[in-house]
Amino acid sequence: MFKKNLKKNNVFVTYAIVVVAYIVVEALLLTGNMSSLMQGLLVPLCTYSLCAVGLNLCVGYLGELSLGHAGFMCIGAFSSAFFSVVMQDAITNSIVRFIIALIIGTAFAALFGFLIAIPVLRLNGDYLAIVTLAFGEIIKNVVNVLYIGYDSTGWHISISSQQALGLAEDGTMVINGAQGITGTPHDSSFTIGVILIIIALIIVHNLTNSRTGRAVMSIRDNQIAAESVGINVKKYKLLAFTISAAIAGSAGVLYAHNLSTLTALPKNFGYNMSIMILVFVVLGGIGNFRGSVIAACILTLLPELLRGLSDYRMLIYAIVLIAMMLFNWAPAAIVWRQKLKAKFKKTGEEA
How confident is the model at residue 222 (pLDDT cuts 50, 70, 90)? Predict the structure, then answer.
């Protein structure tokens, strides 16, 4: 009973941290004590936190190393931005338009996650990581050669060049190859980002603490043993991977609606982005959703906060990375945290 209450308290603490951080940031904004640079980082903080939570579900609870979550983020970003640009004049209410775009982006990412998971989850370890990495790069490259526009005769699609599109002079270009999508409405905000983080945390916490979550964790611990007791391994793997991809897709929606021009560049949807999200998960603690959010915020803010120390910025950044890694994974640090946990448990039982 105590363990169950402790787990609920931990979940409550996670929500409380997010809410308190939101209140503090809003107070700084209202009083004008936050720089424009920091204000510009608020939505990216929420975006990367969402991605980290989604990937942690795949890596921490399913036990599968995926390096393609930047690809799911790309799918969510471009599918939602496409809808918002096309329907910008038809749906003038920004909240309604963003909600529909969020549903579309999340659904497309979940669909691709499901389709990719069918063949990919037959693999394990390094093979799975390589295939998911290839998927992410394929998605980025396909978007960069995709041209979509419409005119009085209808929609035109090409995967070679803008000239091959055959668009009339009065036509409108929506996706312009490597130039991406321009004119996406700025419907994202820090408030919406925090709401999405809380929703994602509620989903993953309820999933991992349910019968389904326990089945997923049993597959992670010993797939053969899970199969021997009648657990449908394929079903639960598909479910966890699809939800993970959907959360990454929702992060892409948030990201896309914070930019005027959305492009599929290596820095935002490439290999480096997937690795960065994985770093958030590892440094925050594999299987620790609260740690993923905190690590994403710290490691996103740190380079900007240290920008004034131009000669030592990356050195300090590297030191912080090493310190976080040691805190989470060093044997002495693990023993120290276990002692604190045991002391807290003893105090709770006495009370």
Answer: confident
Residue in the block written with tokens 């005027």: 260
Do the Cβ atoms of 77 and 253 come closer than 8 Å? yes
Which H or E run includes 43? helix 36-56
Domain span at residue 99 reads: 43-266
**∠ CA(176), CA(75), CA(45), 5° rounding?**
105
Ramachandran region, residue 148 (left: φ > 0; alpha: ψ -120 to 50; beta: rest):
beta
The pLDDT, as a whole number, for residue 2 is 40
- Average pLDDT along the chain: 84
Instruction: Between 8 and 214, name the one with better pLDDT.
Output: 214
In a domain, 246, yes or no: yes
Q: State how far the Cα of 138 lies from the Cα of 134, in Å rounded to an integer.
A: 6
User: Mean of the pLDDT values across residues 176-187?
Assistant: 86
Domain count, the chain: 1
Cβ neighbors of 286 (< 8 A, separation 6 or more) are: 56, 59, 60
| Tokens, residue 124 | 């394990």
The answer to whether position 312 is within a domain reads: no
Run of H or E residues at 195: helix 190-208
Q: Which residues pair with 173 in a beta bridge?
A: 149
100 or 12: which leads in pLDDT: 100
Q: Is residue 8 part of a domain?
A: no
| pLDDT tens per residue, range 256-281 | 999 888 988 888 888 888 888 888 88
Assigned domain for 307 exists: no
